[in-house]
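Action item from last week, closing it out:
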Amino acid sequence: MTTQLDSPELDAVAIEATARQWLAYFADLLRTGVGAEAVLHSDVWWRDLLALSGDLRSLNGSTRIESLVASAVEQHVRGEDLDPAAAPALVPTLSGSMVQLLFRFDTDLGHVRGVARLIFDDGAWRARNLLTALDTLTGHQPATGEHRPDGAGDHPEYWSARRTRELECHDGDPDVLVIGAGHSGLALAAQLGVLRVRTLLVDRGDRVGDNWRGRYDSLVLHDAVWSNHLPLMPFPSSWPVFTPKDKMGDWLEIYSRALDLNVWTRSEIVESTFDPVERRWTVVVDRDGTRRTLNPQHVVLATGLSGTEPVLPQFAGAESFAGELLHSSRYRTEPARRGTRTVVIGTGNSGHDIAQDLYESGAQVTLIQRGPTHVVSGHTLSDRGRMRYGEHTSTDVADLLDASTARLDPQFLAALRYGSATMAEDDRELLDALAAKGFALSDGVDGTGVMLLFLTRNGGYYIDVGASPLIADGSIGLISGTTVERLVSDGLIMSDGTHVRADTIVCATGYRGILDTARRVLGDAVADACGPVWDLDDEGELQSVWRASGHDRFWIHGGNFMLVRNYSKYLALQITADLAGVALPTLD
């Protein structure tokens, strides 16, 4: 971990002066390529989102940093200033205080926003952490704020007629076809819409939001409201902390209508090809029984990073089981299960949720744990999250700060371990009660808790919204430390010989991943061209998501609400640049 000398005492005036002086030196470095040692710490971690690298990159080490500086010189940096969205401040860290500043500047490519955290080192303030993020493309200002449409005289037709024309693609094929109209697809379409990119979403549901409405009754979002706003249109201030699933489904439908998003429901892709010479797709869409051929330039798969192809274990003796055996994707609340014996296999979010839903439906429930699981209370997590995303903080600023830390930076990992340990102490009573019941607990990847489990596995944890206390008090039964050996007519036989009787067995055992969905929907050629999806690359960036997938003009988009809100913007900028013939920078 980086050490630093005691920094001088700074008041607000001195903090701003320090920030302005550092920014002036940094801008000179970006213009001339000279003077890195004066403004950058020798162990600086610099995260760049498109602005200087044309990609999502996290760089550390002199050679890699030099490549970013060289790119900046070619981009002709100008107009640097502190960002008025947040004043420079002295912020505490595990290794001492840092001066944190938000800044902005312009380049030939566009407007850039950034974050720097400075430590006092060898008599000077130097950046230990940096973010440079492309905010807008030159010549492609989003139609928001002072650039919003007039509404009265913009079009020679009434709004309703224009919307019908746009929705039906009467003026030609969409530039971008997005498969999936959940929160990921809608967020991207909103970002593309304000960049005036013609976008069409297709979804097999009857209505926008049915992917939420059609699930079990007890489902709520596991992340708190403050981090879940969608782009351009935040939740009302009366919105509940943890959003019920039907309310979320309705909000997505409201969102799609309010932002004039073009969505074809009851629609599925039945055929697709890509012409590598013309760089254009031919896609046949079945829209409620009527087929339409479209020729978009870009296709985005936004059906969920876990994919849509369920993993259902092949149990010995499954044919002899007389009850109901189903994957969690098919589970729905059913009052007829009251009083029946039910088993849920899997202890991630879905497994816990379904066990809780069955209990609340009056069933007898046993949860089978296949491996250690990290557990944290949803309220504990949201209380800590409100240090950044909260009632009185700017989501825009919070997103910049969240994006400003490289995920492999040892200081970031140390902060994750500290935060996870602190939350575990807050949850100590609950965790001890779970352990006493035999629940196998995990502290995550190297003690980092939820975050790296999410970013590397997209699983292995439960954010508690009610099931853990039911396990702790015995309302939900638990079997852990043994595996399913076989099914019999009235239930399961475990590897230790335990006979678990069941009328219903629900397998909360995950999905095969989004590339399997791509293979089913778009074919082998597309899926085979793509690299690994999700998990961290050697820089700590997520693989093939919100960035080049490996197949020309095919993109994969997804994540939780917070990530989707933030990174849908950078995906929209990449697509817009490609459509406009704007070359993004590349690093040597």
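Closing note: Confidence is low (pLDDT under 50) at residues 1-5.
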